[in-house]
Amino acid sequence: MEHNYKNIIVLGAGESGNGAAILAKQKGLNVFVSDKGQIKDNYKKELTENGIEFEEGRHDEVRVMQADLIIKSPGIPDKAPLVKALRDAGKQIISEIEFGYWYKGTSKIIAITGSNGKSTTTSLLYYLLKNADLNVSMVGNIGVSFAKQVALNPTEWYVMEISSFQLDDIKEFKPEIAVLLNITPDHLDRYDYKFENYIASKFRITRNQNEEDILVLNIDDPEIKNYLEHNPIKSKLIPITMSDQNLTQDEGAFMKDDELHLKYQGEDINISIHDLALKGRHNQYNSMAAGISARVAGIRKEKIRESFSSFEGLEHRLEFVATVRGVDFINDSKGTNLNSVWFALESMKQPVVLILGGQDKGNDYNEIMDLVQEKVRAIVCMGVDNTPIHKAFDSVIKNIVDTASADDAVKAAYALAEKGDVVLLSPGCASFDLFKNYEDRGVQFKQAVREL
């Protein structure tokens, strides 16, 4: 499709906004970046070095309204008054991944979305392709933005982690392979508190796919299953499931007798779960999704086997930190919703001292109640307001302690733990009350463990 836009405004100067601006500049387009907040120093430097004009702390609405194309950062909600005004004026608004797509040439995209496990699956799949010597980059919500990669270092394959926010403003964007891991309630404030709107947003990944394109999806997930029953999808479906009984076709990934099977084009690769570097049931889903996508991308079974056993997991995602006098410490700071906490607890074999809390997005702690009762010895709260946690667990857990820093939380958890226990930081909340972000929280946690 022809794109004759000349005057481009990028709203938001984070990783994705800057990536879009750099690509626009490279293509000789007139681009201006506008950020209502303060732009981080590294991004400001990047804009200056690329000769891109920008403003911060305000939006020059007159100038923004003159644009013939708006590229909106995923963090800016549709409710924002400026976005509403732009839509009312009939302005074309797209996301950075859409803009990157216009210029990607003949490269192929594998795009991964879902409520949980995106980063792990994306990293594992990137590793599988890289190890097989494909010319590949990892972009999107993890690492470099897609548009920036297209501008500065284009590759033949893009393994991309994408959120529902990025999918909300696509028009033509189409991955050759799309992966949908699971759907659980998250970010509902952006979807009028309607779960069905969030589900539809995730399925937008298939919007432009046709019969030649692949959709790898978890058919054990009730929301995914339900959506498929009521909505036609053109893509060729390749299911992943825990039980081969659910596999009604010849292709897909499943678990059987402690073995992971990848069936594609008449070949069945089986790998023992003991040979997988990633442990835990939720990681079996992530491994199935990455493995079957790698098969579709043409990776041979020897390479897949080898990469599965040598892959090292992600920082801040069920990351083993240290054992201190018989107590294991695990950093799952990236677990910012209760579904993540559920997965983390579900994969623990020892009794748990759980560090929980932060900026609560209206959590319903009943979601994890059964696992907490079954596995958790004590809870250490780490947030400015821990009332919701007390309200949920005071009657079922004897020891619940309040702390207001990573250091205090680690000391309190260590004091409550017995030899053979695991101290698990899996907050189930955003980190913005006490920390810059989940990475900062994880780093402070690991530092505190090392100082015990």
Automatic annotation (TrEMBL):
Pfam families: Mur_ligase_C, Mur_ligase_M, MurD_N. InterPro entries: Mur-like_cat_sf, Mur_ligase_C, Mur_ligase_C_dom_sf, Mur_ligase_cen, MurD. Keywords: ATP-binding, Cell cycle, Cell division, Cell shape, Cell wall biogenesis/degradation, Cytoplasm, Ligase, Nucleotide-binding, Peptidoglycan synthesis. It catalyses: UDP-N-acetyl-alpha-D-muramoyl-L-alanine + D-glutamate + ATP = UDP-N-acetyl-alpha-D-muramoyl-L-alanyl-D-glutamate + ADP + phosphate + H(+). Its EC number is 6.3.2.9. GO terms for biological process: cell division; cell wall organization; peptidoglycan biosynthetic process; regulation of cell shape. Pathway: Cell wall biogenesis; peptidoglycan biosynthesis. It comes from the Bacteria. One of its GO terms (cellular component) is cytoplasm. Belongs to the MurCDEF family. This is UDP-N-acetylmuramoylalanine--D-glutamate ligase. It comes from Taibaiella lutea.
